[in-house]
Design goal:
- This protein is mostly helical.
- Helices cover 63% and strands 8% of the residues.
- The protein contains 8 helices and 4 strands; from the N terminus they run αααααββαββαα.
- The strands form 2 sheets. Strands 1-2 form a two-stranded antiparallel ribbon. Strands 3-4 form a two-stranded antiparallel ribbon.
- A hairpin with a 3-residue loop joins β3 and β4.
């Protein structure tokens, strides 16, 4: 498969995305409530705040949340950029994040799998979601198709095929309380489909 090593001039999309995430995380340390009110995705309010379908990808719930997301984005994202280039990487990342958030909205509002609103002493509070995990699972899904047997290190010392790391990572996280499994699923499905399309395109170029 053709590789596209990053070469300037221009901005590296991985570092741009990571920088925006970090800046918003730092700002949230100063005023977390304002950031969540303005940028977090709340299905019950999505018609009033449609921009949150995108902005929620740049908001994180805590240090471990942003650390592991950005660490995975750096390694997986750099690998995908080298395989398909900047534009296709951005398509996978933002397309997967968008589809994941849309699926989260649909599951939250139209199925009994989640309550759209939860009761609290002060009234009704909309369920919300934040994080780049759906977009990152899209990147992982694309790589699982494009380079399935590439070895990755789980916990930095357990070698497993990339496809297994992505799929089992999704399954394990799906059982963690408070994790938006549907956003992860939407991103993963988008990435798998994108990876399949990219692979077919590359195969056709080789054939001809």
């Amino acid at each position: 498969m053709r590789r596209y090593p990053y070469q300037g001039p221009g901005l590296n999309p991985i570092w741009v995305i990571m920088s925006i995430n970090l800046l918003i995380f730092i700002f949230a340390l100063v005023d977390q409530q304002w950031v969540r009110e303005l940028l977090a995705l709340k299905p019950a309010k999505v018609l009033d705040q449609p921009w949150t379908v995108i902005t929620s990808m740049f908001v994180h719930a805590g240090f471990s949340h942003i650390f592991f997301n950005m660490l995975t984005l750096y390694f997986f994202g750099t690998f995908l950029v080298n395989l398909v280039g900047d534009r296709k990487f951005q398509l996978v990342y933002f397309g997967g994040g968008l589809l994941g958030n849309i699926l989260f909205i649909l599951v939250t509002l139209f199925t009994p799998l989640r309550e759209a609103l939860i009761n609290t002493p002060s009234g009704l509070v909309p369920t919300s979601v934040v994080g780049a995990s759906g977009a990152i699972f899209a990147v992982g899904g694309a790589l699982a198709v494009l380079a399935p047997n590439t070895r990755v290190l789980i916990y930095f010392f357990i070698p497993v095929p990339l496809w297994a790391a992505v799929i089992f990572g999704f399954l394990i996280l799906s059982f963690v309380s408070g994790v938006a499994w549907d956003a992860h699923l939407g991103g993963l499905v988008f990435g798998l489909i994108a990876g399949y399309i990219f692979r077919r395109q590359q195969f056709r170029r080789v054939r001809w």
